[in-house]
């Protein structure tokens, strides 16, 4: 090892051993400079340097300690797809803040007739003294004079850099999403040699460390609120590059929502503000209505660690907590869409779950949130289909206590759900005022049941199919083509002896055979009843984690089948390698005359088998007895 490399590693050891995680990645050091280059501007603090085009809000160069961190096309923002695809253009550039401690610059695209989306797009970049990353945020604005706005895909793309010496390799070789998905990524050369498959986003790798495996951008999709950060790091250069999210209030559709993150085959790092994949909602603003929303700030974070790439990842996860602790950022003071902490309020309370059939159920770890969904029949639009405004979510403690901080003043709908229970609690007209805590006290969620007892349950109500068989492979492209080798046809599941994690597949679709033909795939649920009431209906409760182009048919002991379409469908979750999308529930009444004292069988069948996307991913099933 050369002396220069030894000195670099020694300095990294000193840096990583002394530095605690601070917002932005650090403080102190050289003053921030802003250099106007005519068509572009350069922000520099001696650690990070960003070259930003004024007209397009594109970062064409982003360096960390002298390393170029973005590919030649640069970091950019986009909306829509196909004919509606749009990048910010013809922006008006301005300097919002320029001090030795911080620079905040704006590139604002004003709506022009003929634009695909009727909104102004104001992109901001912020570099602070001592920071090891670049903050960014965007403000969209719809004036009453504009036409109606419909906005689905809305994202930032940060293409990772290639090795300047060996451009057939990445600058940073490892990709990181979560505990199951972190590995050495296929190189640019591997991707160039790969063969495109029937689904255009999927390629088959023919070389490199993942030779013989499929690669697809969707296999890296994740819940932003679960991971907090994702990105790339390298064992050669001992540096990492990450999106670090300090808050999630500006994202749509609540904590379970998933979307694209880091990937090698399609962008490097992506951050989707309008998380439109997997059945995501759209932002919809009618003509004549004023609307504005801020997205961010979030941190494009760089770090260094002498140990290895995994240590960079651990540091990035610690950085999430540092950013959370600083929210709302005190340095963003000039935008009415982003009120400071003193101009926000909070909501406190204790959630109590009262379930007459599950006496041990508590509210421990429940997700509790408030959303500014519009009022209307039955509470208006549900939070999992809401993009126009803001949502604020926390997890309750072991006793069900919760505090939702930093909420903008307004009137909200409070919602809560918890592992172990189907459905959710809703309370409307929760008012939040600046500088005050709205104390709700004890909030009791009384669980309603059609029946008087539970005959059996399969799975865990948690809005995901992740606990079921083969779910460890849900993110593998075309995994559903392999299910014929792993499970029988029909599936025979016996309550009391079968195991959900072993015998109950994570997805119910047509069964793909070895010759790529499909057949119907019935699942038989066998169970015993010691006795039956004289009359009434039993109820099959089905909670669904995802469905698309699907119909669920049930047959009880060979009687006439009954069918229902899941009430919420879409999102291509099966094709996009997910394990949940939009949640919904169904109930099937079963006359007790169709049941037997003793052995019984309920057959489940996803009966729409003509489309490859057709599927149901169950969250949970139970049979209630009258």
Write the layout of secondary structure elements.
Blueprint (H helix, E strand, L loop, with lengths): L2 H16 L14 E4 L3 E5 L3 E6 L5 E6 L2 E2 L7 E4 L12 E7 L3 E8 L10 E9 L4 E10 L6 E3 L2 E5 L15 E3 L5 E3 L3 H6 L1 E2 L5 E3 L9 E3 L5 E2 H4 L1 E5 L5 E6 L13 E2 L2 E2 L4 E5 L10 E3 L5 E14 L4 H17 L19 E10 L12 E5 L19 E5 L5 E7 L2 E8 L7 E8 L4 E10 L6 E7 L23 H4 L4 E4 L5 H4 L7 E2 L5 E2 L3 E7 L7 E12 L3 E5 L5 E3 L19 E8 L6 E9 L8 E11 L1
Could you please describe the fold and organization of this structure?
- The protein is 8% helix and 39% strand.
- The strands form eleven sheets. Strands 7-8-9-10-25-20-19-13-14 form a nine-stranded antiparallel β-sheet. Strands 1-2-3-4-5 form a five-stranded antiparallel β-sheet, with no helix packed on it. A five-stranded mixed β-sheet has the order 34-37-42-39-40, with no helix packed on it.
- By secondary structure, the chain is mostly beta strands.
- The chain folds into three domains: 3-325, Beta-galactosidase, Chain A, domain 5 (Distorted Sandwich), CATH 2.70.98.10; 341-446, Carboxypeptidase-like, regulatory domain (Immunoglobulin-like), CATH 2.60.40; 453-625, Galactose-binding domain-like (Jelly Rolls, Sandwich), CATH 2.60.120.
- It is globular and about 85 Å long.
- A hairpin with a 7-residue loop joins strand 30 (410-417) and strand 31.
- The protein is built from six helices and 43 strands.
